[in-house]
Write a structure and sequence with these properties.
Length: about 220
């Protein structure tokens, strides 16, 4: 059975899964929603959420807290949106770096499948940006966590010059391994997408903005 292109992209969002395109936003914009951190949670000595370091081009080192798990899940769920990772070897290495040992091979397979789909659909000059808009911490204890994210991704390239958008719900399963959160599985589904309100024709197209504007990458976030 043929897979609808939007489902394919949503699978990519959840399995690559699409990423940190608005510049490693994750931990810096998380709202605690009024929930108290689990009393069993263990924060880092400096009280921060993380990340504290970078390995193979991706941020690592998160607190063993609810906030740390959310930041780690968001980082992973937005991986492929980093332009520096739009390379099969780099993306595969990044996916394996953030994966739990039991999920490393599947992470590598998903990286390959996702990369091939992006190149086939948009071309080798593909440009992807993504953001996590909301999160839901479904389960947490010091050894495991489940985080659901509502994400939006936009993609363009020489093979599809118009910008396509995909809204998705991404669920990331995490496990605490060797002092950090690692991914041991993901699921994703298309939607829900907002309804566009009537507006005047834009003065600039989204593809123009993607070419002319820089992604957030360490820049101050408003």
């Amino acid at each position: 059975m043929a897979i609808d292109s939007r489902v394919r992209v949503a699978m990519l969002v959840g399995a690559l899964v699409i990423g940190v395109a608005i510049g490693i936003l994750f931990g810096f914009i998380l709202d605690d929603g009024g929930n108290d951190t689990s009393p069993q949670a263990v924060a880092r000595p400096d009280g921060g959420v993380g990340p504290t370091d970078e390995t193979n081009g991706v941020p690592v080192g998160y607190a063993r807290t609810e906030e740390g798990a959310i930041a780690a899940a968001t980082n992973f769920s937005l991986l492929s949106g980093r332009n520096g990772l739009l390379d099969l070897e780099a993306l595969t290495t990044a996916m394996r770096t953030l994966a739990a040992p039991s999920w490393e091979e599947e992470a590598a397979n998903q990286a390959r499948d996702g990369y091939e789909y992006i190149v086939d659909a948009y071309g080798e000059d593909a440009d992807i940006s993504a953001s996590a808009l909301r999160y839901n911490l479904m389960d947490f204890d010091p050894d495991s966590a489940v985080v659901r994210l509502w994400t939006v991704s936009v993609a363009s390239g020489s093979q599809r010059p118009s910008v396509e958008e995909v809204w998705a719900i991404v669920t990331v399963d995490l496990v605490w391994v060797d002092g950090d959160w690692r991914v041991q599985g993901t699921e994703s589904a298309v939607g829900p997408a907002p309804v566009d309100l009537p507006s005047r024709p834009p003065q600039e197209t989204a593809s123009t903005l993607m070419e002319e504007f820089d992604e957030f990458d360490g820049a101050p976030v408003p």
